């Protein structure tokens, strides 16, 4: 199954294998943490990465929007890796992004990396968006209900036939959901890390993104990244994100 149905605060949502979240009733798709031009940002600080992350992220974004055909697209913050990222985009990548923005009701949620949306791209900029029973924002808040957020780049680890697998995932407890990072060069923070404790109940579900399917697993089945220990540590989540989300071992 390439999609999983979630119910968040009464709203029927769909977790897509791509990492996008759709709300069919509202013809809406949400994506989190594109981090466009992260590669060029790192290169500017002397850490050279292949300069293809923006093109790869736009490839995936074009595919999912062409397939799901939403009217509204919500980018949940950190769409650009830093304040200068939009200006560093190549001409072709800029054209592709502009075409996507102009073809939809595009909403830029402010992130900690990109508090201001680019002036020369279509779309509405806002700190958060409230639609019916849901609120879309970048960073989750303790005690929020109906919240759809990003920021933490959730991944989950599980053992399958003796092999440990670590994958991007959606994390949700029926009242709120944290979306996986959509960008090509984004790291991942294990959902059993203490940073998630204020946002998710003691029991929650991780929807892991396999090769061809989305797998729903209860939190009790998951492993932490430190010798399998659950929910500990209070340092900032970005300091614990590791590059990449691990190998994809589900068939």
What does the model show?
- The structure is a single chain.
- This protein is α/β, with parallel strands linked by helices and 251 residues long.
- The chain has one domain (3-240).
- It has helices spanning 38-44, 53-68, 85-88, 91-102, and strands at 3-8, 11-16, 21-23, 28-31, 72-75, 105-109, 124-126, 128-131, 134-137, 147-149, 154-160, 163-172, 176-178, 189-190, 205-209, 214-218.
- Strands 8, 9, 10, 11, 12, 13, 14, 15 and 16 form a 9-stranded mixed sheet that branches. It has a 7-stranded mixed sheet with strand order 1-2-3-4-5-6-7, covered by helices on one side.
- A hairpin with a 4-residue loop joins strand 3 (21-23) and strand 4 (28-31).
- Helix 2 (53-68) runs parallel beside helix 4.
- The protein starts with a strand and ends in a 33-residue tail after the last strand.
